[in-house]
Amino acid sequence: MMAPTSTSSIQAKFHPTISANIEDPVSGELLTRAVTLFPCGHTFNEDTVIQCLARNKLCPLDRTLIERHAPNYIVRQLAETTKSYPLKSLKEGYINLLLHLLEKPQIQEVLTLKEMLESQVEELMSHESEELTEKEKISYKWMEKLLGENEKIRQFVVEKLRQIYQNSASLLTVSPPPPTSASSLPTLSLNEIQALSSLSINPLSTASLYKGIVQIHFPERNRNFTEQAHMLEQIYKIEFTLSVEEKVAHIFQQIFNLATSLSPLEFEGDSKESKDFTLSNYSSYLLNINRLLLWQTLPGGKNYLHQDHIKALPLKKKGELLAQWMERHGAIITELDLRFSDLTFLPPEIGQLSKLCDLILINSNVTALPAEIGQLSQLQYLNLLDNELTALPNEMGQLSKLKSLRLCYNKLNSFPAGIEQLFQLQYLDLSGNNLTALPATIGQLSNLQGLSINDNQLTALPTAIGELSRLQYLDLDKNQITALPRAIKQLSQLHRLKLNGNHLTTLPAQIGFLSNLQRLDLISNQLTSLPAEIGRLPQLQELYLDNNQLTSLPAEIGRLSQLRALSLRNNQRLSPFAIFMHLSKLKNLNNLSLDE
């Protein structure tokens, strides 16, 4: 009997690689009506292909144009076998099959593959039960079918297994090599090559793995998957021209590199575990990497992790100690600055920082916040500028003491849930996202003094904006707003209103009710005139009207006794006479900008 070897992690990879390849990567159903697309070679159920042809004629995995398609009878037969094959106690048959495979010279040449198969045999022989597990049954059916075909197909399968596991040793240090050319393989028909390469090289299982990785980072399911995948590629700096297989290898390479930097003793030598491209492994590595990245920033955290007995622990064991360490030390932490960190999400242990008042996490790649963020009951300032957030957890609404929330330059498509419950909030920054509208519930933020929503896609403001009675600063630059609501008149405490780069053609008469307004920015709109009520702004000191289509100024502009700066550049229809006719009364005007 062969010497025992560790097998659990390798088996976790081997079985799903086989079973996942007869499932439609889009619907998840068995490929009993398999159709292969050309030239990409990916295989889907007939229903999926019909939908693709009706929608955009692009392969849903790599967006390649579909030139033609054909039924894939090999994959259909395998799927039907999986669906209906009568399983019995086949342990002996499975062992014999693996032993037969181990006799192949191509297998003996690749140590990784040889050890994996030997480990499986060893584990099967050590089981007291004569019955196979469900995973073993599926794996056995597949191997029996693939290796039971004619000789040239058996040679092709063995060759592909050898290539996969031989190449896996280099995935951690170099980019994945190009596929082996057809000339180096046994002679097969085109249909056999395309069908079996999709089964053994694993584009379908890899696509499923890639989709799972994306969903770990972006749990919001109702968002466009292509958009989410693009954001993931930006995080990992992946070239969009790479295949799905190459993208997965690139992601795991970076993950393993990070894991090695944080737990070097664990990854000394040739670690088999690091070669397991599974969703479970990815999730575990990602969680514990982020735990340690956070831990290193906490007071005393780096020194604790550098103790010899801690350094010797595996990455997962170290990560699991964070909660215990937080219980002892977390209560003293009131400020936490994580700017420019490598974090991709905050680990759930963040919720144990019960005294935290100020959290800065800017210029990182955080894609999601844990529900435990709601446990930071003392938090007053939260800065999440320049991350990859597409949504916030509902638990954000539990931050009852939060005064300042900066979410600028993320990937938010809608007003985040829970924010309307932050009744103590004084400043909210949502600039640089993809918001198209504000909810009526924004009026519940009755203590709000500053609101920045510039660089979005707003076309209008809700009437509820007028309920923000304490608002002093409102930045709406670079949106697509065509008109202001009459409720704007209720913002009587407003000091500055920024509306540059919108689509305004007129201002409402209610603008004259903003009795405390000191600066009004209206550059790059489509204004042709100003309302007479503009003269009822007694505190106005600066007025910027460049790049509009003004033809005249109202006489009432001469009443702006506090006006110090007026800019009218690039209003080509505005005559000098119209400008100077009403400005002589503006005794404090010392900065007038006009076209030369």
Structural write-up:
The structure is a single chain. It is built from 18 helices and 15 strands. It is α/β, with parallel strands linked by helices and 596 residues long. Among the domains are: 8-201, Herpes Virus-1, CATH 3.30.40; 435-596, Ribonuclease Inhibitor (Leucine-rich repeat, LRR (right-handed beta-alpha superhelix)). The strands form two sheets. A twelve-stranded parallel sheet has the order 4-5-6-7-8-9-10-11-12-13-14-15, with no helix packed on it. A three-stranded antiparallel sheet has the order 2-1-3. Strand 14 (565-567), helix 18 and strand 15 form a beta-alpha-beta unit. Helix 10 packs across helix 12 and helix 12 packs parallel to helix 13.
List the keywords.
three-stranded antiparallel β-sheet, twelve-stranded parallel β-sheet, Leucine-rich repeat, LRR (right-handed beta-alpha superhelix), 596 residues, 18 helices, disordered N terminus, alpha/beta, Herpes Virus-1, elongated
